[in-house]
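can u do me a favor
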């Protein structure tokens, strides 16, 4: 049974996002609480990635506000970095560290007990056992994608933000990813993700933010069924 809505964790009000003066998505009003999942859907170029980057403080909003646990979003703050795990690209790796070393550094930096065992479990879960001791530069694009996801799962977080997490994953890994995200959601993590995968959205999301040329609006999955089917 999915968690009912609780106190709001991430809140955006009257938000306009974009590059330059022209917003690509506006206005956005959303509330995401612990133990709930919100999917962001829309065509390529509609502003999904720009919206996610603004919600985690990497881009300044053109208008409106974003708060996390009642405080303005600041991706430089220690509290924000402790509370939020995000995968927005596949290139946020230390070039001199192997995949395993990167995961260990992330886990230990967030106070994970038995970090070696937790890292080994994530390496196995994401099918990286044979390449875990290679440098990121020696991995394929799909392996780098899985390593980036493993880095988000290897640490605790109140909010997990993913931009098209299904990208470059095979069908079996997508199914396992949906199960993992659902498990995190049910355990109390707030999950925010952009996706073109209808099955992932339908399985994980409690609400859907539809981004298109006309408006940005939050709908129940049943209300957004037509748009999800178009993904």
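np, heres the sequence
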């Amino acid at each position: 049974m999915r968690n009912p809505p609780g106190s709001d964790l991430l809140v955006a009000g009257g938000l306009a996002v974009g590059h330059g003066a022209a917003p690509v998505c506006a206005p956005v009003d959303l509330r995401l609480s612990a133990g709930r999942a919100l999917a962001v859907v829309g065509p390529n170029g509609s502003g999904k990635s720009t919206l996610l980057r603004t919600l985690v403080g990497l881009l300044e909003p053109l208008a409106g506000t974003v708060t996390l646990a009642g405080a303005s979003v600041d991706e430089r703050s220690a509290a924000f970095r402790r509370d939020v795990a995000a995968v927005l690209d596949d290139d946020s790796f230390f070039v001199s560290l192997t995949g395993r070393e990167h995961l260990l550094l992330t886990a230990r930096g967030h106070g994970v007990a038995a970090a070696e065992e937790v890292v080994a479990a994530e390496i196995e879960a994401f099918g990286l056992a044979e390449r875990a001791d290679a440098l990121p530069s020696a991995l394929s694009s799909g392996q780098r994608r899985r390593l980036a996801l493993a880095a988000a799962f290897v640490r605790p977080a109140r909010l997990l933000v993913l931009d098209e997490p299904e990208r470059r994953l095979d069908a079996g890994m997508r199914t396992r990813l949906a199960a993992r995200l659902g498990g995190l959601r049910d355990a109390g993590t707030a999950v925010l993700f952009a996706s073109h995968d209808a099955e992932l959205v339908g399985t994980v999301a409690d609400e859907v933010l539809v981004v298109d040329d006309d408006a940005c609006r939050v709908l129940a999955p049943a209300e957004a069924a037509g748009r999800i089917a178009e993904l």
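The longest strand covers residues 8-17. hope that helps!!
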